[in-house]
Known about the structure:
By secondary structure, the protein is an alpha+beta fold. The protein has four helices and 13 strands. It folds into two domains: 1-16 and 206-231; 22-203, Jelly Rolls (Sandwich), CATH 2.60.120.380.
Amino acid sequence: MRKVGIVLVVLFALMPASAARAHDPIILTSEQTTPARGPLLVDGTISFALYGSLEDSADTRGFRVQFQQDDPLYISILIPNLAPENRLKSHLLPTLEVRDPTGRISTLEPTERVTFAEPYTGTNYVRLLQFEGVASRGIYEVTIKGKAAGRFTVSIGQIEQFGTAVEDIDNRDLGVAGVMAWYEMSEVSEDTTDTVAPALSSAPSDNNTSIVLLLFVVVGVGVVLGLRAKR
Length: 231
């Protein structure tokens, strides 16, 4: 069994890091229209993905996130790489309004369209923007806005850790099932979309690679066990 353990350690070490990464999912509801009504992430360095939908051009969603002084601040926004969201005209894409602990408000607007695969859920996205900086101590208020109905995902933090405390949330247990239900929704008026999905660039997908390597692990263990049986 020692040899089997060594094989597993070596093979899993060869797997891409992104195959093991996963954001802790949170589903934003239609009632969470402002940061005050939304959940509070008590540690902004932990990796969360907040999934929501804007029902019309006047709709908003919000949440709060707490940082300690000089914590790394990472935030990005994505849309599902599905019609109709990936066909939205550029000026209709969702934006982020971030209010820091001093009251200063920054607006983060889409700067890119990078396709992105999420191996943990098997879902696909288009990243619209990502921002990295250094946080001040206190609570940041984040509001998601858009000029069209559509789904979005906001990613916060980079430390992969599940089960971190979240306050002011009633649906924490939805998990992956909630993500898949959100992912399968689609309803946007045709006059808000482009005729061709304009994904400008693509980040490499790890889905196929992860599957191949997992099969490699299984085969490797089988070979080791077979050799042991012959002895």
